[in-house]
Amino acid sequence: MEQGISLLLKGLGIDAASENYRETPARVTRLFQELLSPKQSNWKSFSSRYRGMVLLRNHEVYGLCPHHLQVVRMRVYIGYIPQDRAVGLSKLARAVEEHLSMPVLQEDLTDNVANSIEERLKPVGCAVVIVGKHGCMRHRGIRSKGDVITSSLRGALFNVPAAREEFMMMIGGL
């Protein structure tokens, strides 16, 4: 990776041996390693009689877009209605982070997180909404500061209008 970063600097007309850039290939390599290090999660769940909605709101994560390798800053909202099992609350945040070990489309990330929750918890319903600020849209081309919003709603949070409305109300105005 460091050799590739050195080639990139050379392609930009930068003397990578100069004082200001000598450590850049190693720094950029560490940045990508930190940003894309796989995160594993223990999905221990607990017996629960709770039948209301559980919501993680405004969890912030960073990923890379696969098209330009630009940073995507995302706010994530995850809700689920337990059936018989509840998960440790930090696991909802970890459900997102375990899918950020490679550059990923925001749309795929949204579905992957919903799939993880659905497969592991078998909830009555689950919903994932991700609001992304894409570096590639902000710094090149259209230069838009707009948000990209994706959603994946499953079970009762898709089929039952009252449950879907409750989720949307709980996540608030995005």
In what order do the strands lie side by side in the largest sheet? 2-3-5-6
Would you give the CATH topology of the largest domain? Answer: GTP Cyclohydrolase I, domain 2
- Class computed from helices, strands and strand pairing: alpha+beta
- Quickly count the domains: 2
CATH superfamily of the largest domain: GTP cyclohydrolase I, C-terminal domain/NADPH-dependent 7-cyano-7-deazaguanine reductase, N-terminal domain
Largest sheet: 4 strands, antiparallel
The H-and-E topology, N to C, reads as: HHEEEEHHEHEHH
The mean pLDDT is: 93
Contiguous uncertain segments of 5+ residues: none
Overall, the morphology is: elongated
Radius of gyration (CA) equals: 19 Å
CA-CA gap between termini: 38 Å
| Shape-level CATH architecture of the largest domain | 2-Layer Sandwich
Number of strands: 6
Number of helices: 7
Strand content: 25-35%
What's the CATH C level of the largest domain?
Answer: Alpha Beta
Helix proportion range: 25-40%
